[in-house]
User: What shape does this take?
Amino acid sequence: MRLEKKKIVVFTGAGISAESGLATYRDSDGLWNQLPVESLATKQAWQNNPELVLAFYNERIAKANAAKPNAAHLAIAELEQCFDVTVITQNVDDLHERAGSTKVFHLHGRLNFAQSSADASLVYPWHGKPILTGQQCELNSQLRPNIVLFGEQVPHLDEARKLIKEADKVLAVGSSLTVQPAARLLNKARFHADKVLISKEIKKKPFGYQFIRGNASNLVPVVCSNWMREAQHQKIEI
Assistant: This one.
């Protein structure tokens, strides 16, 4: 008898990438406490000074390109051996993909893509290269990072809600749950789903989640290993 794979949604935030050396945005030493978000990550900032915005994100592109997936990214990818896994991430790096995860939704954009500044639906693979002033799309508009700036619509929210509602297990990692509307997604999980939240700090624990405080690279492999062992035992019993 063939056992259908259970569905897992993994929701990740900046904390998982921080353990690969990438700066967070909202921690006490995060980027938004060092740099003015209004000048770098808003629609108005792009309109007023696109060169400054490009310089800021080109630095993020270089750092993300140099980073490597850590044990948490790798453990999440390995879950696909036993489960139907979807990663929903607030992160703009591609560490999940490089670790081996095959279904990843980026709620806040992707650093390894560029987009038209005239039509956000025109998106181009950029493979870790800087975006230079004067580089244009076919509409003759400046290319910009494929990043959701403050004031812009967050993509994939409907798909994310549906996936979390259908999941048998939800694993949230490295998010302080302060960025909306993404943080509210965890409340959509089913009452009987296994729900685990791993983070160093959170604003408020969602109902029904087991909260484990600590480093993702230490704790995520343990949770993933336990879930995989459980799935293998169930398969043997069938």
Summary: The helical segments are 14-18, 37-40, 43-48, 50-66, 71-78, 95-99, 157-166, 216-237.
